[in-house]
Known about the structure:
The chain is 54% helix and 21% strand. It is of the alpha+beta class. The strands form 4 sheets. The protein has a 6-stranded antiparallel beta barrel. Helix 5 (122-152) runs parallel beside helix 6 (167-232) and helix 6 (167-232) runs antiparallel to helix 7 (237-312). The radius of gyration is 60 Å and the shape is rod-shaped. InterPro entries: Beta-barrel_AprE, HH_AprE-like, MFP, T1SS_HlyD.
Amino acid sequence: MNALTTNWAVIRATLAEEKKRDLGRLRVEETGFLPAALEVIERPVSPTARVTAKVLMGGVALLGLWLTFGRTDIVASAPGRIVPTGAVQLVQPAEAGVVRRILVHDGDHVTKGQVLVLLDPTVSSAEATQARKAYEAAAFAVARTRAVIDGLDGKGFVFTPPAGADAATVAAQRALAQARLADVQASISAQVASGQIAQSDIATARVEVAKLTETLPLLDEQIAANEQLLAKGFVSKLKVIEMRRQRLAQARDRESALQSIRRASAQSAGAASTLTKARTEVRAALFDELVKANADMQLRQEELAKTQTRANFQELRAPVSGTIGQLSVHTEGGVVEAAKPIMTVVPADGKLVAEVKLLNRDAGFVSVGQKVDVKLEAFPFARYGSIPGKVIAISPDAVDDEKLGPVYVVRVALDRTRIDRGDRSVPVTPGMSTVADIVTGDRSFLSYLTSPIDEAKGSALRER
């Protein structure tokens, strides 16, 4: 405490002495009439000027050091927007139609396969019904033909109707196939009967030939015996002549029977050939019908699949799970155009990235892995800051942009997807406009300031 008191007393005495000295000095206007040497004595140079000069020189030196050794980032700015890693899915009708019901709204969360919009199915349903009936008719034709072929081959009558056919139609088609089989079998049976008649004639003629063959030798013996008796006069000549006549008649009958056998054999062979030909022709006709029926059934099946697909197009479903956006249809009963998007679905499981357009002049300095500061237009970075990230992909070729010209598409992974707004944390959503500052390197402040001079120096005195 005594030390403080002593120091304070010394300071007060010094200030009083300075004040007394100042009172004894001449005023500024008075010193102006003194010689220069006396003026310097009376009014020495203020030490403040010296200090100010030293401070200024030190500041300039520090500024030079800072400009020389201080570093600043070199950035390439690229505009873009926030997108999910999975591309935004478009929902669009395959063909023009009339809207019957709208089942979702903007911002709704949907699951994959969920129905979003129903179109009027009147026309497509009618076409599908007609195609189904045509396919069913072709399938019944195939089933009937196969049943007839199996029946002719001895496999039994097996009629297999198409699935889903009603019982009355199945019964009618089965009866039609049975009638066809009976008609074919009757035609074949007629050919078989003709052959059987010829075989019967052959058998009868053979019996006759056998009988005559057995009786002719006996008749010859009788004739020989009667000729001996005639020579002795025991029988009349007329009896021998009659017996010879009988022998000739039986020989003719035998020859006639043999001719009948040959004729009946020819008829039997012809009947067998006709039967074989008839069976072959019937089977060929049936297999030709089966081939045509199968081809027609396959054609009808393809048409049915096409109409069913068209019918399914009347239900617009979500291609992925996500959030509905950009819904452009709001009127039930309105007309939608083919292939024109009516809404989008932002995938729910995709991470958000910044997709930016890099100018051609900056493309040579940007590479994968470089750090990026992503600034959101919706949240001014001076107040809310930016989102750090890094480059994860660069398009291999430039694309044309109407405003920027040739640009490269760069994708930037975000370290976080929320912005602290002060009162609460707000999520980053797809579609937000961004400006990405890609850090391509650093340089000194001095080189930044002298870069215009370097550019001017490089092009100076070279113009035409």
